[in-house]
Design goal:
Elements: E1 10-12, E2 17-19, E3 30-35, E4 51-59, H1 71-118, E5 129-130, E6 136-137
Antiparallel strand pairs: 1-2, 3-4, 5-6
Length: 138
């Protein structure tokens, strides 16, 4: 956009120049202000040396995003995620307990066999029968 100093968008005082850019700028863009040499004089009559393009750069804000949030949908999605996380956690805990209980039984049986096989002279012979129910019977 180019303005003449006599345009209604430009206001000059003895110490200030104001340019009204209302409605002329697009959101989320960068702009540069330039002033040609000798376009202004100070109170002593000295000429302004000018402001080249791309020396003074400014940007405009991103346009506001407006929209409605459906809190009911958000609530149901959040509850669904919480329920899934809880189910995964509970399932993991149950699987861990089942695996740990199986390992404890195996360790107890192994200890009993080791104890009886270390001192065979003091222990009566043990006969172990393998039955298809998953346990060993004496």
């Amino acid at each position: 956009v180019t303005f003449d100093f006599s345009a209604r968008e430009v206001t000059l005082s003895s110490t200030l120049m104001t340019v009204d850019l209302t409605g002329l700028l697009e959101p989320n863009n960068f702009y540069s202000i330039s002033l040609p040499p000798q376009s202004l004089n100070d109170l002593s009559g000295n000429n302004f040396t000018g402001l080249p393009t791309n020396v003074y750069i400014f940007g405009t804000a991103i346009e506001a995003v407006t929209g409605e949030v459906d809190w009911q949908d958000t609530l149901w999605i959040t509850l669904g995620v919480i329920i899934v996380v809880l189910l995964v956690f509970i399932g993991g805990a149950v699987a861990y307990l089942v695996l740990q209980s199986g390992q404890r039984s195996a360790r107890v049986f192994a200890r009993e066999v080791r104890k009886t096989t270390k001192k065979t002279s003091q222990v009566a012979p043990i006969f172990v029968e393998d039955v298809d129910d998953g346990f060993y019977h004496q």
